[in-house]
Design a protein that fits this description.
With 571 residues, the chain is an alpha/beta fold. It has four domains: 3-78, no CATH class; 85-259, Dna Topoisomerase Vi A Subunit, Chain: A, domain 2; 291-525, 3-Layer(aba) Sandwich (Rossmann fold); 526-571. It has a nine-stranded mixed beta sheet, with helices on both faces. Strands 1-2-3-4 form a four-stranded antiparallel beta sheet, with no helix packed on it. A hairpin with a 5-residue loop joins strand 24 and strand 25 (517-523). The longest helix is centred in the last third of the chain and has 16 residues, at 425-440. It is elongated and about 125 Å long. The N and C termini lie far apart (103 Å). The relative contact order is 0.06.
Amino acid sequence: MDTRSFLENLQSKTGRTAQKSGAGYSACCPAHDDQNPSLSIREGCDGKILLHCFAGCPVDSICASLGLEISDLFESDLTAKPAPVHTVYSYKDEHGRELYRNVRVEPAANGKNKNFYSEQVDENGRVISNLHGCRRVLYRLPEIIKGISEGTQIFLVEGEKDADKLAAYGLIATTSPESIKWIEEFTGMLAGADVVILYDMDETGIKRKNLLCENLHNKVKRLRVVDLPGLEYQDSHGPDVSDWLAMGHTMTELLEIVSKTSDYSPARKKSTIKAVNLGEFLVMQLPEREMLLSPFLPSQGLAMIYAKRGVGKTHAALGIAGAVARGGKFWKWEAPKPRKVLFIDGEMPGIAIQERLRRIAATDDFDALAKGNLRLITPDLQDRPMPDLSLKSGRDAIEEFIVDCDLIIIDNISSLFRSGVENDADSWQPAQDWALDLRRRGKSILFIHHAGKGGQQRGTSKKEDILDAVLCLKHPPNYRPDQGARFEVIFEKTRNFAGDAAMPFQVELCESDDGLLSWKVEKADIDPEVLAVAEFTKKGHTIKEIMEKTGLTKAKVEGRQKRARDLELID
């Protein structure tokens, strides 16, 4: 009986399958009530099946419980099967003391050409068929240490047979106990080494090569991977360096190939970034950039409107939303065709937004299409606080609504981008990256923001870096609180348009007797003194000279200059 037949008999009688353990198997002993596998099954050098019950059951009792005789444990025809050859490879520490052995068995009892098992010898000289608690080292470690100290190349192969083959030619070669397992201690043993990897030409060999390169690159003095010519790939049991030498190649050839092999460098991953040359770029059919609201808000446009509290930012934002949604006019601007708009409100009561939009939608041209084009996210409709768009989780929360829209209006930055420090440029970086990604996807964004005490947009100026247009809303000098929403619209940054379209103008929200809202649009009021100071300033006159020509005090000249700058009459 061979080992396979014995295992089949054991399974049929006990209903349990033996488990592989080292060079043999372990199973529950059939001679006693065994709940924890205590029976060891191995094949001896002569083909005899070796049984050992750690609970103490005799071999004859084990055989009897299986309906076998002890003689059944012997191979029935020993002459028909060659005796397996056991080759012992001793793994030693730095001082030459044996730590464990790898044993190669040819042919293997399981019908394979070869098999391996490991064992160690304890302090009492007893052979233990496992490596529990045993320190792992590289094969032929003492020679490796000596070779590194002398600056000699270290050949790293797969298997002790190949290592011994190269050693017989006077080279220093090593391997690891297992093909596709590598521990950090092995890397440390090769620190300072000139390592040459020779790999088997099969699936396991390729995996091992990649594993070794990953662990040794930049960790050893030098690393080269040699591709031996003439070896053909096989899925398993592929040819190795020993086979290559058996083909008639010489050690001189091998060393010459090594000398011509460049140092290993990881293959660069193909970049996901696309680059084209000018010739390719100039003939590309790119989508035309259309206007959502002419002249300042194109498709893929990024813009910002800012103002002090109470000036009329939300009035402006809702008016723009309505015009783009219906494809109509607002102030001096015009939307060529209806677009889908997502209005994200961060602080207004729902009833206030509803009332303003009800008046906007009361106009004749605000039809069902326009109403369907304008979607709103506002705090009063939510079951939890509004998402923080400074965070990825917040941006992800609104992604499903962004996919199908052309324009996103953020009202306002302060209430919807709540994390980070407002004056810190780095805190704005996630928002900027998000805006640029939306631009790449064909979306436009209009940010609504607060002005600071000095009248400029609040926080870091980094917000303006990527914007196509920046608009400031501010009360005119002669403004009275009883006038409500009356303010000047001043372009502080314009990209791709200039001239009259970029000139400041003044608007005032008016209410008719029947409660409908309309906007009165006119040129911005410009004091003649402001015009005169602006003119003198453009001609290069000093403040003192302007005082003499106009009769104004220094404070008034400086005030008129500031007003001229606000109106973009001077730089």
